[in-house]
């Protein structure tokens, strides 16, 4: 449908308007602001707009072309468009932000229901029409153009930054019950308002945003590590079967390719080629995973974010491999235990449980974890992996007793000493742990941790 300078698909117009509760009545008489909004959305969603020939002297055409030109001159807008490509929600959100910066007066959906006012003698509505934004963009001087370009750039930059928050949330919503974060918020009217509400809420919780981002990174690292483990697993030939996997063909079939190519291609099409079947010697999935998450006061901040992210990545591994998973928070004893809900998600409370002023008792934490394992129904929790995440040490006199008990249950204890510097007393975990190491700081999940923890 023709707008001001471009032909925009009706589906794109409706995507833009429904996502933002704008008027769904599309007519040639739509205001400049509404038409330009449709073009802006199409440019963000499609990466370009289909220009049409219009009267070059038309004031609306002049204004729209100037705005499009100013937007395309800014790197922030081009970067934003790349992020929004083919995404309805993000494109509508970005169009709304830039339209707000340009002070476009777009008609809201509820106005569609209003009765038209009485017409005057000249056939025009007696109600004064709302002024559109086009006049101030027509004869812009250099300073005005620079100001408008900066407004577009700033809006685009801020929109991209806020979109990254939404993407961090979306990246982990299958893993963590993030809906609980917004349980007290008013239900938004449309998609864009929903995004704005979530962004506003999350911006008031910077540690939550940091945690969501770190969880996403940790989960991706864990996924790659598990994929490498699968790829490198030792395999042996267990059978000869029919199929069409060229990489597994027996030598006789390779010879057939050269001597009887027609028959080979027929067997290939019928998946009747003889090939080896391999069985991996290494089991990807072992027993359950129990994560002990230190929630003492010293863990507040970066250490807590880092540890919660590793715990979430371990949950992702457990869910993927259908292994039981328990998250237990502790200080001087086990505080609370959490297990994934029926939908496989971890309650957010387990990760965001705030630390208190109590000290660290590693022995008590391990004792609690072993109790959980020992009480597991039908011994399903036996042969578990315990992952201890802590920045503190404690009296180790009972450590040998814990190790012996763990050994009888077939439990392996992995310890990570968390420190910002990447240097710490991980040897202090030796009395309790079969394997132990120090985190490489809070900024990311270092290779040592990935190799040791994400491959269990």
Q: Mind sketching the topology for me?
A:
Layout: E1 6-7, H1 10-19, H2 32-46, E2 50-51, H3 59-73, H4 75-84, H5 88-101, H6 135-138, H7 142-172, E3 176-177, H8 191-203, H9 206-231, E4 235-243, H10 251-259, H11 261-269, E5 273-280, E6 289-294, H12 302-320, E7 325-330, E8 334-338, E9 346-347, H13 348-352, H14 362-374, E10 385-390, H15 399-408, E11 412-417, E12 435-438, H16 447-453
Parallel strand pairs: 3-9, 6-7, 6-10, 10-11, 11-12
Antiparallel strand pairs: 1-2, 4-5, 7-8
Helix pairs in contact: 1-2, 1-5, 2-5, 3-7, 4-5, 4-7, 5-7, 5-8, 7-8, 7-9, 9-12, 10-11, 14-15
Descriptive report:
By secondary structure, this protein is α/β, with parallel strands linked by helices. It folds into three domains: 6-110 and 131-203, no CATH class; 245-280, no CATH class; 289-453, von Willebrand factor, type A domain (Rossmann fold, 3-Layer(aba) Sandwich), CATH 3.40.50. It has 16 helices and twelve strands. The protein has helices at residues 10-19, 32-46, 59-73, 75-84, 88-101, 135-138, 142-172, 191-203, 206-231, 251-259, 261-269, 302-320, 348-352, 362-374, 399-408, 447-453, and strands spanning 6-7, 50-51, 176-177, 235-243, 273-280, 289-294, 325-330, 334-338, 346-347, 385-390, 412-417, 435-438. The strands form four sheets. The chain has a six-stranded mixed sheet with strand order 8-7-6-10-11-12, with helices on both faces. A two-stranded antiparallel ribbon has the order 1-2. Strands 3-9 form a two-stranded parallel ribbon. Helix 1 packs across helix 2, helix 2 (32-46) packs across helix 5 (88-101) and helix 5 packs antiparallel against helix 7. It is flat, with a radius of gyration of 30 Å.
